């Protein structure tokens, strides 16, 4: 029996010695040390041995097991090391290759222009308010002096969600929401940028979804001249002192009197092109003195307080400032367009 064990050890060690891959090594481990292996087989026969012989055989059997296990472990380590060395030898890194460029993102031109306008008004003491795009009919129309059935509602074809909710057609509902928060006490001085939605047909200057920036100032003794002064400062800072501006009488149900501000077209320099539809002017905002009904509905005493409001389209402003000919460029996400507006 002892001879048999010695024989098995020698045989196993020889096989381990000559193995060159990990899988074959594992097969050897299973065949010699496994439950059905020859060593287990030998140990099963121990019952026939005398009481003195038994512990001796047991001891030798354990030593054989240990020797084989150790040899396998050593071989395993050697094979793994050889593998790593082989890979290191075959794979090379060329540290002189240039790195792969990382594309840097940039602000969308619309975001940039909105932030520029925000900064301008913050500099004049305004704070920024934001409100919901899904709006109540009450805020979008009724509280702005546009009761149900009012013909001026047609000026802004709306996307209704239910009878009482719609995608806001303008940022003007934020006039009312802001005044409500002030509980009838001035001063109020905010601008509100945000997305608005209308069932307009898309063309060079119209989009069904666009952005607006609302402005609202309410206090004692606010006059039309304050509005005119504010808009003039804004236009000059935004477009340079040489661009022409005109205020045209207009109509909005929530302001009285109302005006629209146009700026001379930069693309054609006032001569007429497809951007200004041949007129030489581009409308960039609507404005006026807050209608007393609107002040009262929002909880302000219209005998004590007056105010002005304006609403502008940043797309149109960016188009003028940068000479962009089609509003749809803002929304089709062509990187060649967007990447021209990277800020330092
Ligand atoms: C209004 O929306 C009023 N709420 C503005 C206002 C506010 C008046 C406060 C008085 C007091 P209007 O519909 O004209 O007005 O739109 C305002 C601006 O949004 C326009 O001057 C234009 O710059 C822009 N605009 C309007 N419709 C579109 C459109 N479909 N696509 C892109 N810009 C648009
Ligand atoms: Mg208009």
UniProtKB/TrEMBL annotation:
Classification via PANTHER family: PHENYLALANINE--TRNA LIGASE, MITOCHONDRIAL, PHENYLALANYL-TRNA SYNTHETASE
Coiled-coil parts of chain: 65-92
Assembly and oligomerization: Tetramer of two alpha and two beta subunits.
Highest taxon of source: Bacteria
UniProt-annotated binding residues for Mg(2+): 256
EC assignment: 6.1.1.20
Classification via InterPro entries: aa-tRNA-synth_II (IPR006195), aa-tRNA-synth_II/BPL/LPL (IPR045864), Phe-tRNA-synth_IIc_asu (IPR004529), Phe-tRNA_ligase_II_N (IPR004188), Phe_tRNA_ligase_alpha1_bac (IPR022911), Phenylalanyl-tRNA_Synthase (IPR002319), tRNA-bd_arm (IPR010978)
Record's keyword terms, sorted: Aminoacyl-tRNA synthetase, ATP-binding, Coiled coil, Cytoplasm, Ligase, Magnesium, Metal-binding, Nucleotide-binding, Protein biosynthesis
Taxonomic lineage of the native organism: Bacteria, Bacillati, Bacillota, Bacilli, Bacillales
Entry cofactors: Mg(2+)
Protein name: Phenylalanine--tRNA ligase alpha subunit
Free-text comment on the cofactor: Binds 2 magnesium ions per tetramer.
GO molecular function, one term: phenylalanine-tRNA ligase activity
Subcellular location: Cytoplasm
Gene3D superfamilies, per database record: Bira Bifunctional Protein, Domain 2 (3.30.930.10)
Family under the similarity heading: Belongs to the class-II aminoacyl-tRNA synthetase family. Phe-tRNA synthetase alpha subunit type 1 subfamily.
Catalytic activity from the UniProt record: tRNA(Phe) + L-phenylalanine + ATP = L-phenylalanyl-tRNA(Phe) + AMP + diphosphate + H(+)
Domain annotation Aminoacyl-transfer RNA synthetases class-II family profile: ranges: 74-340
């Amino acid at each position: 029996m002892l001879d048999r064990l010695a024989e098995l050890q020698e045989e196993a060690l020889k096989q381990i010695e000559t193995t060159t891959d990990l899988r074959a090594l594992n097969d050897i481990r299973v065949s010699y040390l496994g439950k059905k292996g020859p060593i287990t087989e030998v140990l099963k026969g121990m019952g026939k041995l005398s009481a003195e012989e038994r512990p001796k055989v047991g001891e030798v059997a354990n030593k054989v097991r240990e020797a084989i296990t150790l040899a396998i472990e050593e071989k395993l380590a050697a094979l793994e090391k050889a593998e790593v060395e082989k890979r290191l030898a075959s794979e090379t890194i060329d540290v002189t290759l240039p790195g792969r460029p990382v594309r840097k993102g940039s602000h969308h031109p619309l975001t940039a222009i909105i932030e520029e306008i925000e900064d301008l008004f913050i500099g004049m003491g305004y704070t920024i308010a934001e409100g919901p795009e899904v709006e109540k009919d009450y805020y979008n129309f009724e509280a702005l002096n546009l009761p149900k059935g009012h013909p001026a509602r047609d000026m802004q074809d709306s996307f209704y969600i239910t009878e009482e909710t719609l995608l806001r057609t303008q940022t003007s509902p934020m006039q009312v929401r802001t005044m409500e928060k002030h509980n009838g006490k001035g001063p109020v001085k905010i601008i509100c940028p945000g997305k608005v939605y209308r069932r307009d047909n898309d063309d060079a200057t119209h989009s069904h979804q666009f952005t607006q920036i609302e402005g609202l100032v309410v206090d004692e003794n606010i006059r039309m001249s304050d509005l005119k002064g504010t808009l003039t400062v804004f236009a000059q800072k935004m477009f340079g002192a040489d661009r022409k501006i005109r205020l045209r009488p207009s109509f909005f149900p929530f302001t009285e009197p109302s005006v629209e501000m146009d700026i001379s077209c930069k693309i054609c320099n006032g001569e007429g092109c497809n951007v200004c539809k041949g007129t030489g002017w581009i409308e960039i905002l609507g404005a006026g003195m807050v209608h007393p009904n609107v002040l009262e509905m929002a909880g302000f005493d219209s005998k004590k307080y007056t105010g002005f409001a304006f609403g502008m389209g940043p797309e149109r402003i960016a188009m003028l400032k940068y000479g962009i000919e089609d509003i749809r460029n803002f929304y089709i996400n062509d990187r060649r367009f967007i990447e021209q507006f990277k800020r330092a």
